[in-house]
Amino acid sequence: MTENGRDELSKMPGARRPWRRSLVLGSVILLCGVAIGSVVTALAIEKKPAHGRRPEWSPEQIAGKMQWKYNLTDDQAKQVLAVFQEHGKKLSEIRAEVQPRVEAEHEALRGTVETILTPEQAAQWRVEFEQMQRPWRHSSGESASSNKR
What we know:
The protein is built from six helices and no strands. By secondary structure, it is an all-alpha fold.
């Protein structure tokens, strides 16, 4: 091709895209992916219970999941449900017995740390301490100590 032929090709629309446009488009796509990934990760971390503890599941949820996961018959699922309900009641009774001791120890811990801190630091610590405790409290055993503050 002659010199004039190249000039004519470069003037044709769509014949040659500038590399800057591709670079900008690629950068925008990359930044969007980073932003979306960051938000999803933050949400996943936020919803994760403290210290890897799973939220309380009802006996029905556990039995239903086991029925699906282990391909239980309806009779097996009913038996498993009854076992979880029975033992769930016993575990709740044990929690109710132990909960006052656990709360007393938490209050002692909180109070001892507060003696080391300034009043401003102690106020921040109380808020953070309450947030750390929240996932560990059983739904029926809300802390009496939280009402004291």
